[in-house]
Amino acid sequence: MPANSVFTARETHGILRRPGVNVYASSEDRGWSSLYASHQTEYSFETNVDPVADQLIVLHLNGPVRVHRRVAKGEASRLIPPGGLFMMPGGMDFGVRLDGTLQTLHL
């Protein structure tokens, strides 16, 4: 993304644009160029995600909830407690399954 561009949900991994995600607040209309932030409720889902240049950090605001992640090197399933993090480096495609309802903060 060019340095002067506004960072919008279109530049994210697309998880927030899934049906059933309730976004309560985001930086969408703030004009931020180097960070996108959002607070939402996510419901159980499973998806494969195409790579984007920027990393993804998800802070779990409640829980615990089981998250299953698939990357080229393998798969892992973890029960993530409140305050836990899900992180994915930029440039990687991945699969994710959320096995419950979860309030999150995405960066």
If you had to describe this structure to a student in words, what would you say it looks like?
The protein is an all-beta fold. It is built from no helices and nine strands. The model has no long low-confidence stretch (mean pLDDT 91). The chain has a single domain, classed as Sandwich (Jelly Rolls), CATH 2.60.120.10. The strands form two sheets. It has a five-stranded antiparallel β-sheet, with no helix packed on it. The chain has a four-stranded antiparallel β-sheet with strand order 3-8-5-6, with no helix packed on it. The two termini are 16 Å apart. Strand 5 (65-71) and strand 6 form a beta hairpin.
Which helices and strands occur, and which strands form pairs?
Layout (H helix, E strand, L loop, with lengths): L21 E5 L11 E5 L2 E5 L6 E5 L4 E7 L2 E7 L4 E4 L5 E5 L3 E5 L1
Summarize the structure.
It contains no helices and 9 strands.
- The tally of structural domains comes to 1
Tertiary shape? globular
Largest beta sheet: strand ordering: 1-2-9-4-7
Low-pLDDT segments: none
The assembly state of the depicted protein chains is single chain
CATH topology: Jelly Rolls
Query: How much is the average pLDDT?
Result: 91
Please, how many helices?
Answer: 0
Report the biggest beta sheet as strand number plus sense, adding barrel if it closes. 5 strands, antiparallel
List the main descriptive attributes of the protein structure presented here:
single chain, 107 residues, mainly beta, Jelly Rolls, 5-stranded antiparallel beta sheet, 4-stranded antiparallel beta sheet, 9 strands
